[in-house]
Amino acid sequence: MAKVELKQPIVDEIKSSIEGAQSVVAVKYLGINVDQDTKLRKELRENGVTYKVFKNTLIKRAIAGTEFAGLEPDLEGPTALAISKTDATAPARIVAKYVKTVKPLELKGGIVEGAYYSAQEMDAIAAIPSRDELLSRLLGSLQSPIANFARVINQIAEKNGESAPAAEAEAPAAE
Asked: What is the spatial distance between Cα 89 and Cα 81, in angstroms, rounded to a whole number?
């Protein structure tokens, strides 16, 4: 069997991993120990991010002609890919968190929603909160005025000596 035929399943695996991905981040992992790598992989997995080491030549073949072809200049030296199909900022956010404490680990660059970002720009992407966090902030912002309004109305009702007519409003009037 030719070498190309042996490598084709790996290229296909990479293609299927990046197909439909919102972001793909190239990571330099050389020099981290097993414990650090295990913690990183666990957190990435918990956030729906695929993290795997591939040969650069196979990655180049897989990304050729796709929106992720811009990653090619970053494919020098040992490279792992962090791929997310659900949260565009998750790979950058999680890896950047580990880069601060695990010195050999580096963000090389990445493609987020079709646009290429360098290592420095990936730090800015990493600062963006997760989708869930943004939604909870939005919900809190929407609920706050409503809750404040309800408190004010309740205080006015208590000041006038009235109680909340919730039970009376539910009962239909007898005819």
From this structure: 14
